[in-house]
């Protein structure tokens, strides 16, 4: 608590403004994360149902010629699997459309958020490097930029991880449906249609179409931050 008041009293107006930017950035980030997690959860539920269908056909090797010889109870259960597969295919399509709507709604906001995170991280790290090179190091003024930088980094990695795992969960459905072993033409046609649907839709989170939101973005930001800090340090050395 004492450290907090020391930092607060020694902060200037220009040092307080980034704190408000950080809070707004965090609010936007966590809103986008929660929405992406909701979509991921629904993909996960669909995959659980696909796994149940796979287990059903693993336990029962059913040939479509033999369907007419089965009793009504088994026949109804078998028809239920086809109905579930059709329903899963439809729901997967709606979730894919939801991701596209997500990109249209939050794409510009996310691009601005990543831009603010990038610029703030570069400035904060450069400020810290300059403070560490001073004759008298003011640790309190260095502490705040380090904390804000850490928060920006955590938020960026968190949202990239959430979007990446959501896409992985969506693509997992395509792998699971090919584990269904059956000779029934209706189910095989549904599997083929489901596969084509997944291939053609190509689900991904992106920031207004500028770049995908996954781990490649994290690596790009790390490379960009490193490059700009080196350039700024070299420029400051030449000016001095």
UniProtKB/TrEMBL annotation:
The keyword Hydrolase does not apply. InterPro entries: 7TM_chemorcpt. The chain crosses the membrane at residues 106-127, 139-160, 215-237. It is a multi-pass membrane protein. Keywords: Cell membrane, Membrane, Receptor, Transducer, Transmembrane, Transmembrane helix. Its main location: membrane. GO terms for cellular component: axon; dendrite; neuronal cell body; plasma membrane. It is found in: Cell membrane. GO terms for biological process: chemosensory behavior; male courtship behavior; sensory perception of taste; signal transduction. This is GR2. The lineage of its organism: Eukaryota, Metazoa, Ecdysozoa, Arthropoda, Hexapoda.
